[in-house]
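Minutes, structural biology subgroup

Action item carried over from last meeting: produce the structure token record for Aspartate/methionine/tyrosine aminotransferase (Nonomuraea pusilla). EB confirmed the sequence was re-checked against the source entry. Recorded below for completeness.
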Amino acid sequence: MRPNSRFADVRTFDIDAVAAAAGADPDVLRLENLDTDVPPPPAAVAATTRSLDEGTGNSWLPFTGLPVLCEAVAADLRERTGVGYDPLREIVITSGGTSAVMPVLLATTQPGEPVVLTDPTYAGLLQRVRLSGARPHLVPLRVERGRWRLDREALEQVRSAAALLLMSPSMPSGAVLDRDDWEAVARVCDRTGAYLVYDAAMERIVFDGESHVNPCRVDGLAGRTIVIGSVSKEYRMIGWRIGWVAGPADVMARIRVAAVYNTTVAGGFQQRGAAAALTDPSGAGVAEAVAEYQARHDTVVRQLDGLPVVRAAGGWSCLVDAEAMGLDAATLSARLLERGRVAATPMTAWGGPVARRHVRLVFSNEPVERLSDLRARFDAALS
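Output recorded by EB:
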């Protein structure tokens, strides 16, 4: 078959392989996938059901999102970012947040241009950069005092970039970027003329009272930031597959075209459910969900005390350093499943040398009670 260079360095997530190996055994602790058992907002379920019953979402149009959802996204972003986005010109609804990434890359980069990401980063971001024809430039996350921190010295060395594609909290590490980090990002964007593509999927899932800084509130970033969001993480609405992109009108004109020709339209029934979640006066259970995720995270860290697990500042997962235990990540993952009955994904497709030495532990889909024997399972795997 005729080769295609775009696929030369693209790797699979490895999540599906670990899940398939785990099978349906109820004794296996499922820490490999970013699902959650914390329920979605009742208001979102009711609005989706009502739309199905009434047939109000069964349409191709409008291609770029129902006005009710575009307006809800604009109101939500105004509170988070301080920016007043035009719902019709500066917001596009997509089939999940990650489905927005490729249209954004196509609209902001040329083949071969560098895109800055962290190492580790979400494989769905990294591999899309490669598929778009752009070139990943990885900036390491470093462990300092038991927490992940952005290597700002390495970031400051960036001299050429079409975009910086960043998350906070970041998958899979749970790293949260602070104001000094975003100010360093602003300097790189100013020096290179790059866009900041900010994946805000987990923005409010932060632990330990950690303050979260939206980059649009940092001088020099609002006018060059493209925000990608979704209802999957904060609102626990994974199966709805609803996300959005917001940004300056000039680049959004290109993104709108790329998004329409990528998926045509996001599901109308689900859009009405997403609008209900965003406008739920009760807060849609976000604070309660974050408290539950922190309890699970803290259980994981407590169980693995003395092992090289890195505490997350937010998100749904944390990382354990396989190489610090004398194993590579693939071997640790295999031993955890075979000996400890723990499904956990090696980070071989999730970055460069930093990612490749780690295994991810997702705590969003297992309650504290199930996590309470994690140390015994690790001990069995390491014996």
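Discussion: The chain has 14 helices and 14 strands.
Next step: EB to file the record with the rest of the batch.
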